[in-house]
Amino acid sequence: MQSKEISLSAMPKRRSYKNWGKQIVNHWQLYLLLLPPLIYLIIFKYIPMFGLQIAFKDYSPNLGIWNSPWVGMKNLVRFLNNYQFWRLLKNTLTVSVYSLICSTLTAILLAICLNCIRSKARKKLVQTVTYLPHFISVVVIVGMMNQIFNPLMGTYGVIYKHLFGTEAPNIMGDPDAFYHVYVWSGIWQNVGWNSIIYIAALSAVDTELYDAARVDGASRVRMVWMIDLPTILPTIVVLLILNSGHIMSVGYEKTLLMQNSFNIQKSEMIPTYVYKQGLQNNGDYSYATAVGMFDSVINFILIVCVNKIANKLGDNSLW
Predict the structure, then answer these.
(1) What is the pLDDT of residues 52-76, one digit of tens each?
(2) In this structure, is residue 48 part of a structural domain?
(3) Within a domain: residue 10?
(4) 288: in domain
(5) Which of 8, 79, 178, 318 has the lowest CB atom count within 10 Å?
(6) For residue 149, how many other CB atoms are within 10 A of its CB?
(7) Residue 69: in which H helix or E strand, if any?
(8) Mean per-residue pLDDT, 165-186
């Protein structure tokens, strides 16, 4: 009986609401810092979920969300049966996967190269040069691309005509070149910014490991392979899992700005299609919402699957 009483007394007690209140009062500064992002999530992420129900309705602004009639899965079935469905899905996945792989590899490569630079002044110079394009507006970036790749008056057109004596092909209007121009212009703009977290991870490497490797006669490439990459591998896996949740969410702003009548077959993607259906084609809000929800569901499935695969292959996963 005594042992039973001891075991019951040893059991952890549930925290009461008073204890939670005391914690909030004692650490109010931390909770105050948490308040702005929490308000942001509630206003811009959770409250808009209320409008998702119009994906299952024949929404009319005159009737409002509550009074619009239910149509079930009609809008989703309409999109799946659309003749553009497979083309939109292919274009979106191609650009997203292409961009994810190349941006990850280039960011890792830049971080490793910067980690090899011993001069602090040179390292800061390279970091500044590679970071700056991230802060340029997408509109300005596409305007620069149109000027540079202009086949008549652009830098590319002038150099091409000087070398080959003929007018340069129109790269911005070439459907086959759209993927490459979109992805590599994005890499140029964001590679410095994407490498920050890898540089931070590499800064945690113990310098004694490099000294020991040099004593053993290891080359710099060997040290990168045996020290640097294993150190940032958990960071790479976590970022890949997080980025896989945005594979279907290609930025429609840049795509719309680069889009023209020549490359429309390759540049039309699900986000641009949603934008056009919701705002241009007589405001088909229900259909556009259904397509956007399909996009989000696929993103959710992808992030769960990628996390499951990462968990099976190793211990590096989100949950």
Answers:
(1) 899 999 888 888 888 889 998 999 9
(2) no
(3) no
(4) yes
(5) 8
(6) 21
(7) none
(8) 91
Task: Look up the domain containing 217 and give its range.
Answer: 76-313
Residues forming beta bridges with residue 282, ordered by sequence position: none
CA dist., res. 252 & res. 250, Å (int): 6
> Closest Cα to residue 181, out of 254, 110, 268, 244?
254
Q: Name the one residue in this structure whose structure tokens are 């009062």.
A: 25
Inside any domain, residue 36: no
What is the value of pTM for the model shown? 0.83
pLDDT digits (tens, 9 = 90+) for 40-55: 999 998 888 888 899 9
Residue 8 has pLDDT above 70, yes or no: no
Over residues 247-280, the pLDDT tens digits come to 888 878 899 999 988 999 999 999 999 998 888 7
Residue 175 CB neighbour total at 10 angstroms = 12
CATH assignment at residue 289:
1.10.3720.10
Residues in Cβ contact with 95 at an 8 Å cutoff, skipping those fewer than 6 apart: 179, 182, 183, 250, 269
Asked if residue 17 has pLDDT above 60, the reply is: no
Maximal C-alpha separation, the chain: 100
**Cα–chain-centroid distance for residue 59?**
31
CA distance 271 to 269: 6
Q: Are 101 and 89 in contact (CB under 8 A)?
A: no
CA distance 150 to 130: 25
User: Which pLDDT value is given to residue 183?
Assistant: 94
Distance from C-alpha of 218 to C-alpha of 220, rounded to nearest angstrom: 7
- State how many domains the chain has: 1
- Given a cut of 50, is residue 166 above it in pLDDT? yes
What number of CA atoms fall less than 13 Å from residue 189's CA on the CB side? 19
Tell me how far CA of residue 95 lies from CA of 103, 178, 247, 255, in angstroms.
Answer: 12, 9, 9, 11
